[in-house]
């Protein structure tokens, strides 16, 4: 458990009016909350949204102001910061690179105790164990989840990487390109293979995302978990009706039929 701070740190000495509005000032006794997102806000790329509460930074409860928070994130772009987000009663982690560049505000004092009590059952693991997973979802709650960590397989043997990720149409296209180029000459085949390997190595995340969008899915959430199973379990908490084609979790709850609910209401 990452709660290393003593109880006196959390005494609610500030009034509600002190915590409303912009999160400025040297000291804060309240969590930060995303107030709004701008057009160039980095938070949108991680699918954070207004109302999300910043509960922890690097596994520790964070009670600093907005300036301290953004300064802590605004470091080398090659380094990630581990954030714990509180959204609608659910805690989840996300690895972010650089400052979020969004408008932040303090949450109301009475909500601090509520979040701290809910946090008591939440476990944060070592940052090195986490990986970011992007999740895309369609209107029927069908989801695609994939690891955003680049893999060497995409650049060494593209067909196997496509097969591993079940990207059937791109697999058929690249296989056909290999056969055609091989029929022309070995030089053409080698050039085709090298170009495809370079493309999939550099753009593998874009390919995964584009294929999910080709299936009429839209970006839903970005979560940091240790395994894809944990990622699916977390998505199920955020949406009890979400479904996965290759599921590591039990079947979802059935979606209530609006007609049945209306008929039941009329019968009463």
Could you characterize what this model shows?
Keywords: Membrane, Transmembrane, Transmembrane helix. This protein has 268 residues and is α+β, with helices and mostly antiparallel strands. It has two domains: 121 residues, Pdz3 Domain (Roll); 113 residues, no CATH class. It contains nine helices and ten strands. The N terminus is likely disordered.
Which structural category fits the helices and strands?
Answer: alpha+beta
CATH superfamily of the largest domain: PDZ domain
CATH architecture of the largest domain: Roll
Number of strands: 10
Which H/E pattern describes the elements? HEEEHEEEHEEHHHHEHEH
Query: What is the oligomeric state here?
Result: single chain
CATH C-level category of the largest domain: Mainly Beta
CATH topology category name of the largest domain: Pdz3 Domain
Tell me the distance between the termini: 48 Å
Outline type:
globular
Radius of gyration: 23 Å
């Amino acid at each position: 458990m990452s709660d290393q701070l003593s109880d006196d740190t959390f005494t609610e000495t500030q009034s509600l009016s002190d915590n409303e509005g912009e999160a400025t000032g040297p000291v804060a006794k309240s969590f930060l909350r995303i107030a709004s997102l701008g057009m160039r806000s980095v938070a949108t790329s991680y699918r954070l949204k207004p109302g999300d509460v910043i509960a922890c930074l690097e596994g520790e409860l964070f009670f600093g102001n907005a300036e301290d928070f953004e300064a802590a994130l605004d470091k080398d772009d090659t380094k990630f910061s581990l954030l714990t987000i509180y959204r609608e009663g659910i805690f989840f982690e996300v690895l972010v690179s650089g400052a979020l560049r969004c408008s932040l505000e303090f949450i109301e004092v009475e909500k601090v105790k509520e979040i701290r009590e809910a946090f008591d059952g939440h476990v944060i693991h070592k940052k090195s164990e986490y990986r970011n997973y992007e999740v895309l979802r369609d209107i029927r709650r069908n989801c695609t989840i994939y690891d955003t960590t680049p893999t060497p397989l995409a650049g060494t043997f593209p067909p196997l990487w496509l097969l591993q990720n079940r990207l059937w149409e791109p697999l058929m296209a690249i296989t056909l390109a290999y056969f055609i180029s091989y029929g022309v000459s070995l030089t053409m085949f080698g050039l085709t293979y090298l170009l495809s390997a370079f493309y999939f190595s550099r753009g593998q995340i874009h390919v995964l995302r584009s294929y999910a969008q080709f299936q009429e899915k839209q970006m839903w959430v970005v979560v940091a978990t240790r395994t894809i199973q944990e990622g699916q379990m977390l998505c199920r908490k955020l949406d009890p009706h979400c479904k996965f084609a290759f599921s590591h979790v039990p079947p979802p709850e059935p979606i209530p039929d609006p007609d049945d609910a209306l008929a039941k209401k009329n019968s009463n």
